[in-house]
Automatic annotation (TrEMBL), chain A:
Keyword entries, A-Z: Disulfide bond, Membrane, Oxidoreductase, Redox-active center, Signal, Transmembrane, Transmembrane helix
The name this protein goes by in its record: Periplasmic thiol:disulfide interchange protein DsbA
Family: Belongs to the thioredoxin family. DsbA subfamily.
Pfam family, one: Thioredoxin_4
Annotated source species: Candidatus Falkowbacteria bacterium GW2011_GWA2_39_24
Alphabetical list of InterPro entries matching this protein: Thioredoxin-like_fold (IPR012336), Thioredoxin-like_sf (IPR036249), Thioredoxin_domain (IPR013766)
Top-level taxonomic group: Bacteria
Positions of the Thioredoxin domain: 51-242
Bilayer-crossing regions: 6-24
GO molecular function, one term: oxidoreductase activity
From TrEMBL, chain B:
Residue intervals passing through the bilayer: 12-32, 68-92, 104-137, 149-167
Protein name per the record: Uncharacterized protein
Keyword set includes Transmembrane: yes
Organism the protein comes from: Candidatus Falkowbacteria bacterium GW2011_GWA2_39_24
Keywords: Membrane, Transmembrane, Transmembrane helix
Amino acid sequence: MNTNYMFLGGVAIIVVAIISTTFFSGNKDNSQLTSNSQAKIAIQNENKSTPRASSALEQMRAVSKDDHIRGDFNAPVKIIEYSDSECPFCKRFHATLQQIMSEYNETGNVTWVYRHFPITQLHAKAFNEALAMECASALGGNDKFWAYTDRLYEITPANNGLDPIELNNIAQYVGLDMKKFKTCLASKEYEQRITNDSQNAIATGGQGTPWSIIVAQNGKKYKLSGAQPYTAVKQLVEFALQEK
Amino acid sequence: MNNIFTQILRRPPYLVISIVTSLIIFVFLVWLPNLRLIVTVLTSDTTLVQRLKFPISLLGSIITNFSILSATYTIAIAMLFGINITMIIFFLKRRLKNIRQTGVTIGFLGLISGIFGIGCTACGSFLLLTLLTWLGAGTLIKLLPLQGGEFGILGIFLLLLSIYLTARQINKPITCKI
């Protein structure tokens, strides 16, 4: 057989492998997390087999009052977003979801749940920023969490561009107790929560950020990868609203 | 070389093939992160209009989910692949018995390389990072200044090379070698 044909066969196999990866890939670890405990969890993930995408979505941790929730907790459609504060696409998508929430604010049909998914391989500062958001939540509740998060996404240039001093400035801007905030941030008390969120993102099939799961009232889940445009997210929300 | 392009692309059937192939590749690359979701929506019970609205609206992600660099090489790869396929078809129709597939192979490698680049647009999303992690080399992504965009640029070079090689083969006269 002509070697060119054999090579073409190889190319075809690679193409099939790529498409298979796209369709069926599940929970491989993408986030090289920072601490030793996180690294151990990451290694455990490396050793797990890759589940089918449909079963991977079922791994999504149920939304609870402990989550960071914007909108009505009982809304028929929930958007669970796994996000990295230094990812430029997450910055865009944050604005998109803000727009979605203002659109559906009156009807109360949509809830936005924010979970952390810092990809520290690419954005070393994102993990600490996630800790700062958690400290805002711990010190000021859900409202301060969202005020802090909105401000952070607003001012960060993304791609690791946020000066760490801004974490304190944002805390001051949203009216947190500065002494307690600095103590909280230094303690890294909420490291495990961020790790848990990231692990859950990976378990559900998240392979990059932003990674979102839209849950309809009947529990049907739709995974949405990337910073998709407002019209696409709105279409998907409307689609999910029909699932009862 | 210019003569070959004008000779081929001036013929309406070849121009159509080139445009249609480019569009198919472009749509595929933009939809790639959400192919399963698109299938779910398209096969749902809702009206045809609603089913079509979602995939069409996803095409807007070339603006929201791509950097300027990655959007540029995605469009370039789609166009070059369309031209490449058209030239290969033209070549095959003329010299079916003298197929040399170097150009074809390089063209496909260019597309695949481009796909790896595309995968990196959404902050390291799927293909490249997944592949590197499978190989236990996830941190290698840090060593790439464009975080995988290099593969998109490589894809353009491979497609250009493929077009060049195909054009050169088309230019060769059909002769019996001594």
